[in-house]
Amino acid sequence: MEVEENNTLPCLDVDITRNEDGTQKTSICREAADTDQVLNFRSHHQLHHKLGVLISVLDRKDTIVSDLHDRHPV
User: Fold this and answer.
1) What is the pLDDT of residue 73?
2) Please, is 18 exposed, middle or buried when counting C-beta atoms within 10 Å of its C-beta (0-12, 13-18, 19+)?
3) Residue 4 carries which DSSP code?
4) Cα 66 to Cα 33, 55, 61, distances in angstroms
5) Is the pLDDT of residue 2 over 90?
6) Can you give the pTM of this predicted structure?
7) How far apart (Å, rounded) are the C-alpha atoms in residues 63 and 73?
8) CA distance 28 to 25
9) Helix (H) or strand (E) holding 10
10) What are the pLDDT digits (tens) for 22-56?
């Protein structure tokens, strides 16, 4: 069971944050041990596998993250 901390509740790969006005915001949940490395581009995987990983990461960002400012940080 997950416990809410700082108005944020992690659920699977999503952080759900409750705002002051009662609305909710979602973002991608990162584990403490996350290295942000999915697939080494220099590996001997086929190119369409490497591109598939990139497309899935970008698609995940666009579908999970609800705040436009968090999708495209400056």
Assistant:
1) 58
2) middle
3) -
4) 24, 18, 9
5) no
6) 0.64
7) 16
8) 11
9) strand 8-11
10) 899 998 887 777 777 778 888 899 999 999 988 98
